[in-house]
Design brief:
Largest sheet: none
Helix content: over 70%
CATH topology of one domain: Helicase, Ruva Protein, domain 3
CATH superfamily of one domain: PDCD5, DNA-binding domain
Shape: flat
Radius of gyration: 27 Å
CATH class of one domain: Mainly Alpha
Order of helices and strands: HHHH
Distance between the termini: 82 Å
């Protein structure tokens, strides 16, 4: 009986230790995500004017996925050297409009009606 109890305790101890390792991994992932988000914010602060950042923040409240895509696009453009000076609000609005136009073109639906007559009617 003591051997069984000892084996159960040992197994439980190993489970708890393994669980603690998972918590450390989760904490590390959270720290990495936080660091990446800080870098993203830093880059955006360098390439956007205050007004443009405010507009992007408002967009993020309403449509987080669209704001994230615009942020990634801006960061990519900055890394490729396509942005030479800070992007102001009118330029950001223009960029948003171009993105919306591209998405609208992709989302068009074309209906094709059948020309044949149905015998039941």
């Amino acid at each position: 009986m003591d051997d069984e109890l000892q084996a159960i305790r040992q197994a439980r101890l190993q489970e708890l230790q393994a669980g603690g390792g998972e918590q450390q991994q989760q904490q590390q992932q959270q720290q990495q995500q936080q660091k990446a988000e800080e870098q993203r914010s830093s880059i955006l602060a360098q390439i956007l004017t205050n007004e443009a950042r405010e507009r992007l923040a408002r967009i993020q409240i309403v449509k987080p996925e669209r704001a994230r895509g615009v942020q990634e696009l801006l960061i990519g453009m900055a890394q490729k050297g396509q942005i030479r000076e800070k992007v102001d609000e009118p330029e950001l609005k223009d960029l948003l409009q171009r993105i919306a136009d591209q998405q609208e073109e992709r989302q068009r639906i074309v209906y094709q009606r059948r020309e044949e007559e149905d015998e039941d009617w």
